[in-house]
């Protein structure tokens, strides 16, 4: 058997280790939530563990109904926060998120290229079409998924053209001749499309020649088609190994159909980790963290995602495929609603089990509640089955989960030959290309 490829591992700075009731722990450091030290500390430790990248998701709205018990999605601007982390780190990739539905492409091209300069080639862009926030941008409702993806495709094309419009070679900085740059190499892009009209060039030269990695989140049919055409990686929710394996092979064949190599697109699912020295402690950590995730909220989630109203069903009644009404016309994320339907069709869980599944209480991410050794075994299993190219770690419950992941799980994966021992290159793209 050929040796297994090395995994690509990202560390979410989201910070999931404060979510649910975890922020109430005495050592949570929650007071630092809107500063940079909390995140910098984790990014430095992730760099010490030689991870590919630190990652920040983003949203552009405040969910005030959740604010009573948690952040309600409030966060620092991800690109600004990563810029402050860039100065203190030297090797780890920095993956920021920017929405193609709300921002203008010129601003995103400039922000991400700025992060690339500030980090010496370590920036990446997580392309999202967003789930909410239309009211903050003059839109009475969210555009349809089709329109959002059509806009995302044109947006991404414009950003790439802008990055090319002032190539690094144009920068001369020749003191002797007094030539600062060669304007003949700097080109307008004169883009006129269905959504954007952008003249260019970008008012910032490109940093070096290595590409800035593009990551895409959203795995409906339209999302996959878009990812397969441009993305270096897809960040996905895959709660079980077969969902990951199916998505990975589908993405590879879609990429090949577009003349790319299957290896050009890497599947990096989110991995939610509740870790403790013993399984019993890990279970307790998970239960304590999610204790206030109310049954009512889970019932609403199931209803919104599938159209099923379970509020009067007995807890032990199985939910079957035949109970599922046709999918609601409007769902926030088709990816998440499809994952939930798929799980019901396959497992026929009881109402009680359904309401405790990661697809309902979390973001439908792959979930490990156990010891560091359990996490290693599970990751090894998914990797040897060829279901993933890596993952993005979302440690939950407490900072202890972060520590156990970086200090025990990652080194063990390295010892097994599943992860690098040291960085081979200097840029984020180098890390993603290093197998
Ligand atoms: C794993 C995952 C992560 C996502 N992260 C974000 C995010 O950080 N910010 C955001 O605005 N939207 C995020 N989204 C939403 C997607 O960009 C997209 O708008 C949504 O999933 C609808 O697309 P779909 O129909 O392909 O699922 C995420 C979606 C998925 C599946």
Automatic annotation (TrEMBL):
Pfam families: Bac_luciferase. FMN binds at residues 58, 97, 149, 220. Residues 40-387 form the Luciferase-like domain. Keywords: Flavoprotein, FMN, Monooxygenase, Oxidoreductase. SUPFAM superfamilies: Bacterial luciferase-like (SSF51679). GO terms for molecular function: monooxygenase activity; oxidoreductase activity, acting on paired donors, with incorporation or reduction of molecular oxygen. Belongs to the NtaA/SnaA/DszA monooxygenase family. This is FMN-dependent oxidoreductase (Nitrilotriacetate monooxygenase family). It comes from Roseibium marinum. The lineage of its organism: Bacteria, Pseudomonadati, Pseudomonadota, Alphaproteobacteria, Hyphomicrobiales.
């Amino acid at each position: 058997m050929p040796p297994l490829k090395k995994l690509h591992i990202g560390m979410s700075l989201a910070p999931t280790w404060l979510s649910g009731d975890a922020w109430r722990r005495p050592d949570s450091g929650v007071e630092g939530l809107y500063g940079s030290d909390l995140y910098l500390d984790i990014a430095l430790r992730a760099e010490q563990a030689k991870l590919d990248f630190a990652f920040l998701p983003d949203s552009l709205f405040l969910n005030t109904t959740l604010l009573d018990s948690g952040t309600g999605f409030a966060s620092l601007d991800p690109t600004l926060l990563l810029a402050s982390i860039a100065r203190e780190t030297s090797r780890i990739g920095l993956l920021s998120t920017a929405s193609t539905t709300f921002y203008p492409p010129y601003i995103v091209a400039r922000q991400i290229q700025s992060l690339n300069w500030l980090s010496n080639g370590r920036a990446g862009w997580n392309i999202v079409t967003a789930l909410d926030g239309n009211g903050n941008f003059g839109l009475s409702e969210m555009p349809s998924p089709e329109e959002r993806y059509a806009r995302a495709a044109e947006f991404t094309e414009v950003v790439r053209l802008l990055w090319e419009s002032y190539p690094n070679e144009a920068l001369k900085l020749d003191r002797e001749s007094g030539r600062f740059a060669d304007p003949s190499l700097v080109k307008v892009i004169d883009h006129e499309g269905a959504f954007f009209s952008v003249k260019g060039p970008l008012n910032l030269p490109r940093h070096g020649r290595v590409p800035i990695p593009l990551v895409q989140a959203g795995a409906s049919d339209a999302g996959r088609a878009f990812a397969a055409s441009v993305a270096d990686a897809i960040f996905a929710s895959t709660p079980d190994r077969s969902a990951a394996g199916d998505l990975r092979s589908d993405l590879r064949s879609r990429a090949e159909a577009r003349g790319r190599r299957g290896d050009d697109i890497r599947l990096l699912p989110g991995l939610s980790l509740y870790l403790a020295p013993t399984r019993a402690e890990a279970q307790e950590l998970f239960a304590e963290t999610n204790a206030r995730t109310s049954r009512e909220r889970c019932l609403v989630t199931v209803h919104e995602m599938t159209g099923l109203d379970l509020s009067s069903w007995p807890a032990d009644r199985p939910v079957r495929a035949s109970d599922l009404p046709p999918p609601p016309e409007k769902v926030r994320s088709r990816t998440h609603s499809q994952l939930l339907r798929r799980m019901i069709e396959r497992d026929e869980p009881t109402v009680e089990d359904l309401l405790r599944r990661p697809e309902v209480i979390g973001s439908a991410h792959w979930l490990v509640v156990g010891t560091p050794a359990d996490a290693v075994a599970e990751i090894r299993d998914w990797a040897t089955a060829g279901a993933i190219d890596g993952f993005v770690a979302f440690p939950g419950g407490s900072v202890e989960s972060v520590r156990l992941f970086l200090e025990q799980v990652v080194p063990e994966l390295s010892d097994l030959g599943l992860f690098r021992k040291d960085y081979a290159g200097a840029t984020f793209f180098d890390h993603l290309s290093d197998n």
